[in-house]
Amino acid sequence: MTGPALNRRGLLAASAALVASPFAAQARASSRTEPEDWDALAQDVRSEFQWAWRHYRQKAWGRDEINPVSGTSRSFFIEGHDLGLSLVEALDTLWLMELDEEFQEGVDWVKSNLDFDIDGSSQVFETNIRLVGGLVSAHLASGDPVLLDKARDLADRLMKAFDASPHGLPYRYVNLKTGAVRDPETNLAEIGTYATEFGVLGRLVGDDRYYAAAKRAMKHALDRRSDLGLMAANIHAETGEFISRNASIDVYADSFYEYLWDSWELFGDAEMKTWAQECADAMIRHQGKRYDGLLWFPMVDYETGAVTNTSQTVLGAYLAGLLGQVGRKAEGDDFLATYTAMQDRYLIIPESIDVTTAQPRTKRTGLRPEFADACLNLWLGDRDDRYRALTAVHYRNMKATSKAAYGFTSLSDITTRPMAQGDNCPGYWWSEQMKYYWLMFADCRRVDYDQLQMSTEANVLRGFVR
Hints:
By secondary structure, the protein is an alpha+beta fold. It is built from 17 helices and 21 strands. The longest helix has 22 residues, at 38-59. It is globular, with a radius of gyration of 21 Å.
């Protein structure tokens, strides 16, 4: 994610049919008629976040995730070895909201209790974006060197998953104590979502091997693009070859594409910028399809462009913001209009949708932040309040459907009225959507919006004002 406004380019001739956008009309339909008091809405977000934190502190302190209906908890990375996931994910959000007492009690827990010398296998991708990123961001906010030391210790353990592969493609799992690796059948997201966390960490500690490893893995996949400029979503860490034919913008691939552009913004890596723009162009040319007037990006065969799967997940909403960032704002607005239509129709955007019918393929959903993420990225580009209005709807719908006895929970059925609640608050809720809401609705004093840069997990990696 990035703050500065971008120079907007004209559309590609091949994508001209994608431009006619119902975005403005849908934005008006999703907006309240009376003027919004943005500061009041921001304070409501802050109050709800603080309320949820207090319940986490009471019911699940130091556990990975709270189950807000029952008041129980669950492990996320390694069963029986909680790593304070939700706590770490919440840290920079607490700091931005000026909840300093809560921030400090979280930092104190990390310094006293968080230890990665565990004889158990942890998913490399998730561990990086959630814990390495969370610790680096908390260090940038506070200046506490212990947080940086812990981030480096964890990154060194994850690096063993890269070192074990002949192509530098990380295995999916690594034993945090022994360095043993497993599961070489992986995907673009899990080999290509390290550059921002590793790059910032490397700058802070003066070691460029982290960023070099992250970029090497990304380049390996990019070098295998088809003549259409597309990559298959699945790849093998040992053979280095694609093991599927599906090009995807969301599942198995999403954050790979985000980190190309983010590497340009954070580090001035011009090669990454070129790759980001080339990949976006290929998506627009060969994956952008219209069904009943709505723009979707279904999976296609990476060599032929033929549609291979007609599902699109809520995760794909991120692409609307990314297209705006790389200079394809018209297409970004157009794709956001698709998800706006889903929000208008279902109140909560379905986890998975059949693009041919716009009907839900699943009834459950997991407190997903991607629509708010896209709105924030587009709003940062031009500060148009229509994006804030759409995000306000997203927040209010979340609050109305997911608030439970001890926090905010996933939903088990979005088709019932009232919607049926599940019983889990995913760790990313603490880092992502509540931060997106706060940044959009508040005039946050602790961030320079023009310098703001966040990871795929919304960990702030640049732009703090201390």
